[in-house]
Write a structure and sequence with these properties.
Two copies of one chain form a homodimer. With 227 residues, the first copy, chain A, is α/β, with parallel strands linked by helices. Chain A contains seven helices and five strands. In chain A, helix 1 packs across helix 6 and helix 6 packs across helix 7.
Chain lengths: 227, 227
């Protein structure tokens, strides 16, 4: 029997590649998807397809409405910014959801503890999107310490490890590596503001960074963008 | 205008006293109650009454089903232990919910950040119930550090503080202090396994510690216990 890992899986490009990393390392895969009231709920369907294709042992979908903690374009009526150049993305974006990764990692920790899984994977990336404070290595290190103090694991001598295989990679490197690992990026969803049929808008920050990554990797993005 | 504080309020004796501390310190009160599928859901009604009596600015109730992360008598079909003496309660109890306080504090952090509230209160107690790893001061200190790295607050120079006014108090001291602050403990609910009408069982660990606390404080518990 292999070691178990809990992987946070949104169905986006980064988390899907992160799942591929965990699979490559030989873990039995437990995928955790959080339905937090995001307006790009289309990605939940992507997460289910990805989980299936990767043959995860189990996918858990947790419903939690974070819209009540207002302040982000991903969960309320603030408009998603469009057609920004990358230099405009350096501030903390309006798409920031307060404490999102802390909530997600806490949920992953809860599930991991009851599974006796001590490896948690999260596809955060510090390079391409420096605006999110909860994507920085020092944040991850601090959460890992908190996790080990929070749980029976910490008491009994086991140690949780938070794996962030993408944290220092560019989007292009992520796409190259994922492609080598066999990821079908046509199943993934990155757009903050997808069209009715789920096709990406091509103009939000996530689409712009994704398209730039594919371009730099000289790989074509299998998704359908508007002309 | 006063400073705002987010207070985790379950409707139990400890969190209600914690709310009274925050009120005494002059904060505007924002009460966060988590409905996590606990089988003593009666305490949710207690939390609503308590929030009303204390005149909170707002109470948020977050629904999140933690039953899928099995392993605790509070959320699944494991039996709540009865009639244990205190020396038997030193191990981590079966009523432990994996990573519960980390999830609760993460949710409080999300709400606090969007409110621009930098003070979070949680009624954890390290003395009376040493079995929960996420009630220890070193855990709280680590979460506070993580919170400040996780958020825009940390980036902009504001600092979150996690207040744990009860952490070193005995149950009797909590009851004495709360009584001085005007808490009506008849509104609170502590039992892990209440009867159909919400009355406490009198035999679970929570009831035993509560009754002992009232006895040591020489105050009578206004709740109705079975004969």
């Amino acid at each position: 029997m292999n070691k178990k890992a809990v992987i946070l899986l949104s169905g986006g490009l980064d988390s899907t590649t992160c799942l591929a990393f965990a699979k490559e390392q030989g873990f039995d895969l437990f995928a955790l998807t959080v339905n937090y009231g995001q307006r790009h709920a289309f990605e939940l369907g992507s997460a289910k397809k990805v989980a299936q294709i990767f043959g995860v042992e189990k996918q858990s979908v947790v419903d939690i409405d974070l819209r009540q903690f207002r302040g982000s374009a991903l969960t309320d009526e603030v408009e998603v910014p469009k057609d920004r150049v990358e230099s405009e993305m350096t501030d903390i974006p309006v798409t920031y959801v307060p404490a999102r990764n802390t909530i997600f990692l806490s949920l992953a920790l809860a599930w991991a503890e009851s599974l006796k899984a001590y490896d948690i994977f999260i596809g955060v990336n510090a390079l391409d999107y420096s605006g999110y404070p909860d994507c920085r290595p020092e944040y991850i290190a601090s959460f890992e310490q908190t996790a080990n103090l929070a749980t029976k694991a910490g008491v009994s001598g086991e140690e949780f490890k938070i794996h962030t295989p993408l944290i220092e990679m560019t989007k292009a490197e992520i796409i190259e590596k994922g492609t080598k690992l066999g990821v079908d990026y046509g199943l993934t969803s990155s757009c903050y503001d997808p069209q009715g049929n789920g096709d990406p808008c091509g103009h939000c920050d996530a689409c712009i960074l994704r398209l730039k990554g594919f371009k730099e990797a000289s790989i074509s993005d299998p998704l359908n963008y508007p002309n």
